[in-house]
Design a protein that fits this description.
Blueprint: H1 2-14, H2 20-46, H3 61-77, H4 80-85, H5 92-116, H6 124-128, H7 136-163, H8 170-197, H9 210-236, H10 243-274, H11 280-286, H12 296-314, H13 322-340, H14 364-392, H15 403-413
Length: about 425
């Protein structure tokens, strides 16, 4: 226990050490987080009237970000499959960064749910009326918090074993939790999909295909985000990321994005070809309803971005050019965010079950809260990566001092 507390203290101390680029990045994220906190305080005092949500459109930008990030968190852990099941050695260290990303993203998800509550002090009522197992919302609370605990355990155990220079106990502490995490990763996004498709009053979500679409889009956006993150880590830290890891991730996002686009086309065919009355939300999203067409540019932008990313990934020379891969990742991250965010949440409320059409536009205060949560999540992830890299490289172990600590000791001695 003493050694573990010493490990935590050294990690805490190391998180404040870095070059000017690290300090500049951390200051920038901290400032954005504080702007977001200030905006949320205004919302907390004034109420949800500071947002663009109304009685007709009760879910907006907050839940859109929540839905997208749940997929990123789920996909981050799916790197465990090729790393441990198929014994891909290139992905062993990458798995840790994926698990760390999942921890940061799940915290962001919980924050987005919290800010979406008009009275967060009444959150306790969810536990006082824990309608288990009938309520899908209860299932969502369980899987999200359980997933966070699982990833904290796996990351912490792997990093601490590396710090102590000993092999992790795979049979007792690692493999069982890794296998559970794989199943749990699929379940968190499936339960989120069921949360929507189970609402009978919103025909836009009443599709059996919504859960597979969630999983496919998650396996495209999540690894795409990790691809960009790994290259940043490789460039700005001393940790080298194997090129084989990026190639494996490229194959994952190519297949996943292909399936996602196919499922989207299948859903559009079903809705538009049948011409049913309940397809009005879909018509509003893609073509508008009369003068109401606020989301039309958004969804067609998403389709163009995802289609362009897919074409770039299938180009013959895309396997050799990292810049093509990076452009594709940026395009699909933005495209899937629009598709699973504004293009999935808002149209279900337009028109309402009684035929009202009230459009939704996020307010500045709402956008600032979202940016603050994103900045806070990136801040947490940066700190965790800053601590993890020296441990993986053998610079920070239980019997050695990190160079930054040696410099600190020298100053204290002087």
């Amino acid at each position: 226990m003493t050694e573990y507390l010493r490990f935590l203290y050294r990690c805490f101390r190391l998180s404040f050490v870095g070059d000017w680029k690290y300090y500049a990045w951390m200051v920038f994220l901290t400032c954005i987080s504080l702007f977001g906190l200030n905006a949320y305080c205004q919302q907390l005092v004034t109420g949800l009237g500071t947002t663009g949500m109304t009685d007709q459109v009760s879910w907006g930008l907050y839940i859109a970000n929540f839905t997208y990030l749940v997929g990123v968190a789920a996909a981050a852990v799916m790197l465990v499959i090729p790393a441990y099941i198929y014994k891909n050695k290139d992905l062993h260290d990458v798995v840790i960064f994926g698990e760390l990303l999942a921890v940061a993203v799940i915290i962001m998800c919980l924050l987005f749910v919290t800010v979406d509550l008009g009275r967060p002090d009444r959150f306790i009522h969810l536990f006082l009326r824990f309608n288990f197992p009938l309520s899908m919302l209860t299932w969502d609370v369980i899987v999200l918090n359980g997933y966070l605990l699982l990833n904290l355990h796996i990351c912490g155990y792997l990093i601490y074993c590396t710090y102590r220079r000993r092999e992790p106990n795979k049979k007792l502490f690692l493999i069982p939790f890794v296998l559970i995490a794989i199943v749990w990763a699929i379940s968190i996004h499936t339960v989120t999909a069921f949360l929507y498709s189970g609402l009978g009053g919103r025909p836009f979500w009443n599709h059996a295909i919504i859960a597979p679409r969630f999983i496919a889009s998650a396996f495209a956006a999540g690894p795409a985000f990790i691809i960009l993150t790994l290259q940043v880590i490789d460039r700005f830290t001393s940790h080298h990321v194997p090129i084989g890891a990026l190639r494996t991730l490229r194959q994952v996002v190519t297949v996943a994005l292909t399936i996602n686009v196919f499922l989207l086309i299948s859903e559009m065919f079903t809705e538009f070809y049948t011409g049913a009355e309940h397809a009005r939300s879909m018509h509003y999203l893609y073509f508008g309803l009369g003068e109401y067409d606020a989301l039309v540019p958004w969804i067609w932008t998403a389709i163009v971005l995802n289609s362009t990313a897919l074409v770039l990934l299938y180009l013959p020379h895309a396997k050799r050019g990292l810049w093509i891969l990076n452009v594709s990742c940026v395009l699909m991250i933005v495209g899937i965010w629009i598709e699973k965010g504004m293009g999935l949440i808002v149209p279900a409320f337009i028109p309402t079950p009684i035929g009202e059409i009230v459009e939704y536009t996020p307010t500045l205060n709402e956008i600032l809260v979202c940016l603050g949560i994103w900045a806070f999540g990136l801040l947490l992830y940066t700190i965790m990566v800053r601590i993890t890299v020296p441990v993986l490289n053998g610079e920070l172990t239980s019997d050695t001092l990190h160079p930054s600590e040696m410099e600190s000791v020298r100053h204290e001695t002087v």
